[in-house]
Fold this protein.
Amino acid sequence: MRFTVTKTGDDGKNLRVDLQGLRGFGVLLVIVGHLWLWPPGGFAALDIFFVLSGYFISAVLIDQFRRSRTLRFREFYLARARRLAPTALTVIAVSIVLTYYLYTPEKGDEVARQGFWAAVFGSNWYFIKTGTSYFAHISDSPLVHYWSLSVEEQFYLAWPLLIWVALRFARRRGWSASRVMFTVFGSVTVAFFGYSMWHSTASPIAAYYSTFDRVWEFGVGGLLAVGRPWLMRIPPRVGTALGWTTTVALAASLGVLHYGDAFPAPWGLLPVLACAGLIAAGVSGRATAPFLVTNVPMVYLGTISYSLYLWHLPVNFFLRSYFIDDTTLYKVVALTVGLLLSMLSFHLLERPLRRAPWLMTRRERRKVRRKPDIDLRPVKLGWLAVVAIVTSAALVLTLRPDLRDSALEHGHEVSAPSLIAGHGGSAGTKSDRSPEQRQLDRIDTALAQTRFPSFSPPLRDLSTAKVFQQMAAAGCTNVTLESFAGCRFGSDGAAKHAVVIGDSIAMSYMAGIREALEPEGWSVQQFTLSGCPAWTFTNSASLEDSLPGCADHQSEAVALLRSERPDLVILASATDFYIAGARSLRYRLQGAALAHSALSRTLAVVKPLAKRLVVLESPPPHRSLQDCITRFSSPSDCRSLPSADWETGSAGEQGAATDYGVQYIATRAWFCDGSCPAFMGSTPVTADGSHLTVQFSRSLAAVLRDALLGQRGGRRPAGAAGSPDG
């Protein structure tokens, strides 16, 4: 059967049905990926939209120039505003209001900041500045997906000007406009692809968000728009074969790609070229388009894809405040609510407001008046709804203290004793119980707690950025050869000396390590670097490339140990982070082997340089209090289980320690008794789910002292113990 690939859209313009369906396919992958974390390369589905945007925008402007010999920038940007702003502002406003209502005021403040940057189409740069990983924090915000909308809008600002310059240059020189544009677009595409090849490995998190790393994807779409006269010559049979081949290739690429692959370049070429092939296949309109993208449901999803994309993540986020866990029921409800809300949004807001007269030029308004079948009443009602929602959001911001009081009235805060006491002790504990037994009592008490305490530190101080500030105030964070002298703690005449080496997890242990060792007459030298583990990588390029400066730092640490010959060396790393980051090539399924080999290389070098060497297991990942405290939650909703990546990494580390006769200090019993509470007493365990708060780290001083200096450390509760160092 031959499928029609063009139709007349609501605005009188021709739309390709296959590309509408491709939009639907792309947005469906995004939604499913965020709920089920499948397919593994679902994060590349957004590249489809970048290529499509480059194609459509370039085609619209080129066709406009060919008809009227000019580019109407004002009409172009007003049309973009009518198309994008109403729904985008509505979703932002609703997200801010609901975050303040359902979550903590501190969480509301953060979403409000994200909302501001989303409204001015700069959220991708905000997330780069704050170091927010799209993969690690996809469930932590209802607005993180606005990064891609920001990238598109920034492209819309620059690309039309590039087309205008190319066309003016071609006219003045009397050259072929198509050839000039093809040369300009091709040069830009190649140049920015080369930039992304470097940046995707030098700074993977920033590269994923960066507009500069995505320009080449838009450029591929622009090249297709310029090349339409040549693509029209593709024979129907060739176009049909190309369409099916590239559709299958596109689907396959999303199953092949994994987090950890260099992206957007070079691996973004897989979905980009597959999408480009599908676009090219249907330019003539004579080929048979793949049924996967031309069936009625997929085309309808493509039609409402903008509303679907904007609403799906807020729906996922806010339903978590009620469901908490990722159950099948939660996912089904999220899909259903997201679809219904998007349909209403499209038909009541997005579609009618595309004809908003006050965002039209005089020429466009005359066109609208000549169409008697268009009823402008929905336009007025739609704008009234947008104004009402945005005004409500502004009112909520001014009433923020009242929301805090309301949350308190709902019983979310009651007083509770702090954990912090000398060496981790607390009132009422029996002196004959070991520190680890007393810690287990605290865990059990926390697991039995039924109301949230008044936290210390307060919730507003719980974030990755703020915990780094607190760690810096309590000691040091990133240490270099130039600064390490100021990161030596304890008495200058201390009889014994310890060195702590590792990444930000080692930093978060420092407060407790100092509290444990300094009163016992030790000095403690910190030599840590964020994102630089106590592991040595040689076979995982994706990890080595994403840890700039780490190899030099590790070499400096070895030189330091050679010169000082410390009595004790403590190694600590974020095991789950590096296992997740190594999911490429053969390490996707060999996380324990990666941890074992990477730590073994370090132990082989470091062990001869220290009188005693220990490996300190990282804390199991915890629930972030900022995310799990809602109007519907209780302390039981803030419990967690150790993640598979953490288990895998710990097993690999322990195996390496056993092989080298090094003590492995298992920490699960310090944080979990079955499940792991997010707070103990009034003290949050972590600031962000990974890094210990300074206060909780200090509360571990007694168990750390016994583990580092006594014989109780190094035993895993299940009986799998690391061998004590000889």
